[in-house]
Structures are given as structure tokens and as C-alpha cells.
Amino acid sequence: MTTNRRPSVLDGMADRVGAGPGRWGWLAAGVWLFYLAQPLQKIAERKDGVTQVLGFLTVILFAASYLGFFGILRRMARKHLLRVWQQVAYLGLMLTLCLLMIPTAGQTALTGLVYIASVAMMLLDLRAAVAFVAVLLAGTEVSLRVVPGWTDDGSYGFAIFLGALAVFGLRRAIQRSIELNAARKDMAELAVQEERNRFARDLHDILGHSLTVITVKAELAGKLIEANPTRAAAEVADVESLARAALADVRAAVAGYRELSLAGELVSARAALQAAEIKADLPTTMDEVPEENRELFAWVVREGVTNVVRHSGAKRCTIRITATQIEVLDDGKGPTPGGGASGHGLVGLRERADQAGASVQVGQAPGGGFRLAVRVGL
Asked: Cellular component per GO (predicted)?
């Protein structure tokens, strides 16, 4: 038996970084290792070569454990294999490596606690993460006051607090995004279910009466075949007529069911553009578009985005919608001389626009690229 699992903050982080530690993912994570320059400088000042080697090795292992969170643990999280004990063990490993830096790096080793606090804010449950960071802060402040030779300038505690606060903000943003996506998914599922129910009701209404009458007349024709062949033939002719009418009604219902939806086409357009690695700048609401314009605008979205994906070589696609006009623009190579506006899809779109009393404009977009625009009301 399987159950639906709500995505966690760690799942959301994995989705944003990607399935593997790509080139830019490693760079985004590794750039913060710059702050380990403090303990490295302190270790470099030591005269004992063996001590230096051990110190450098410890710092390298700590940096690897930090980057490991964005590599190994991310893959585990995406497969939902990350357990609480694994989270605690990983933080314990990082904390142990940080403590091992102290004999060679002195109080500058406390810089590592900033990385540990950041990882904890992403890895643990929020309450546990806050408690863990509070313990790190308390331990840092106490250590700076009781360890001989260490001085408290307030920078370490402030850095830990600031790093944890920044990751907390990121965590909240990801959580809101997860909740919003879940709500959208639920609404989409409800809309699909409602549409299924509507279509089922339509088919029931269309076929229920017709099939009932057909059944009655067929039974009557069977009884009349021997007693009254003429009457039976008339009943059979009525059955044929009713069957043809029911078939036409079903076809009409299916045709209506397949009408394009502007909202659905925008969702499909976003997916198609993302698959083609084209940045999509699409509207999020269609409330201002009158109902009578939405099907035509949906055809414009379908045709325009298809052309962008297939022919444009663009990096960005923008769709702008008002009550009376829709524009599809890209930053690609622009219209083809002598043939950019004469494709079969555009011909069909012009015919639909003519039927709706709208005008179609194709040409070069401002700043380059291709522009397809349809305006209702000539």
C-alpha cells in the first residue's frame, strides 16, 4: 500500500538544486568556503610542518563534509531515505571536524560553526534546528570567555546568528513555494474531477433518453416482425434515425469537450518552454479576458509557443494578455525573410481570427526576435 507524501523543505531544496551536483550547484555552495581562509591562514602561520599538514587536512575534510550536504545527502533526500539519525550523525561529523580544527587553527576554527548552523537550518525540523543553533551560539559565547587566549569580539556569535537567519528566510520561502504548488495541484485535480463529472453528466443526459427509446422501439419491432411487417419496418427506421441523432449528439459533446482552454494552454506552454530550456514569462491570471476571446487566445498561445520551440532558437519567450489583445514574443532569430508569416499554423490561425473578427500581426519583436499578436476588434 502506498500513501501520498507531502514534500518537505529538504525535498524543495533538492528540487531547486537539481538531481545532481551540477557545475553551478557546486559553485553556489562552494563560494561560501571563502570564509575558511581565516583558519587556513592561522594554520599556515604555524612552524611545525606536521601540525600544518594535519590542520590543512582537517579543514579540507570539513569543507568536503559541507559540500557533501549538497551532493550525497541531497540524493538521499530525493529518494526519501534520509532518517533523523542520519541527519544527526551528519551534523555530528561536521561538528567533530570543526572541533578537530581547534588545536591547529585556534579560535578561528569557530568559523566552521557558521556552516554547521546553516546546514542544520536546512536539514532538521524547524524547532530542532532553532534549538541546535541556540546551543551552538551558547557554546561559542561560553568558549570565547573561558578558553585561555581566546578573545570575544562578538563576530563569531553574530556570524552564526546571521547565517542561520539567512537560511531560515530561504527555508520559509521554499516552504511557501511547496505549499503553493501543493494547493495548485489540488485545485488542478479538483478541476479535472469536476470536468469529468460534467462530461459524464452530459453523456448520461445525451444517451440516456435516446438509448431508452431505441430499446423500446427495437423490442416493439421484434414483436411486430411477423404480425405487422410494415409497422416493424417503420419502427426499425425510427431506431436508425434515433441512433444517428444520438451519435451526432455524442460527437458534438466530444467536440465541445476538446475545445481549447486558455488556462490549460498556458500551463502546457510553460511546460513546453521549460523542456526546451527557454525562459517563460507568462501571465498568471486571465480574469480580464472575456469568455468569448479565450478560445481564440488559447489557439494563439498554442501556435505561438510551438513556433518558438521549433524554429526561433530563443532563450526567452514572453506572453502578454489584455482583454482584447494577446502577444507572443521571443528573443530568437526573428521572422524568416519571405516565409516567416506563411506557415500552415499561421494560416489556420488567421482563419480563426477572421471568424472572430480579429486581426493577426506577425513580424519582428522590439529588440529582435519574433512577434505574433492577435487583436480582437479591427
From this structure: membrane
